[in-house]
Amino acid sequence: MKNITIAIDGFSSTGKSTIAKQLAKELKYVYVDSGAMYRAVTLYAMQHNFISEHFFDRDKLILALDKINLQFKFNATLGYAEMYLNHKNVENEIRGLEVSKFVSKVSEVSEVRRKLVEQQQQMGKNKGVVMDGRDIGTVVFPNAELKFFITASIEKRAQRRFKELILKGDNVTFDEILKNVEYRDHIDSTRKDSPLIVAKDAIEIDNSEMTLEEQFDKIYGITIKTL
Ligand code: C5P
Hints:
It is an enzyme of class 2 (transferase). By secondary structure, the protein is of the alpha/beta class.
């Protein structure tokens, strides 16, 4: 079996990361959640008051980029890597609705993208990697041997995200989540730098009516044939 690069892109809350994590585990590949990196930069911007409901000081964030250290550290108990921002575990904080509200604005900044894409390419340089995000098959690894594009209806995605946050104990409403998913879809797909588009050689999967198991079987089956 050869070591390849697997790019999994798609809209918010499609369950990409669950599938990507499972696939990486099965193949004994490295899994990289690129969204966690954009989320951690957003958390930094929030902590330093560079961004709020009413303003966003892009210049201050750009000037501070060298001070932002991002690392994934594998948690053997959980079986996956967690995000560390300047040596602090921020896994829980970056998943909440507050960060979700601002992350797409931060992700529009080209300087942020350049820094993160470079780090992502470094992490995948030896292949044997499954990376999920929005621009993995188009920008980060345009030559990836295998590319998936995952989508699902907006209602299904909002329902899944709502359930996830409620289980985590967050105090959110379904309507807030639906609006956030729509808002992020819009910004992510219309931004100038690296918009969310389907790579021409990507395999598209609509998982609205699929269970996680069905989805995994499909993706794993295609992957095995490629190896
Ligand atoms: O994947 P996740 O929903 O955690 O990503 C959060 C946000 O990070 C996305 O809505 C998008 O704005 C940004 N992102 C991106 N490029 C990536 C991964 C995530 O712009 N490769």
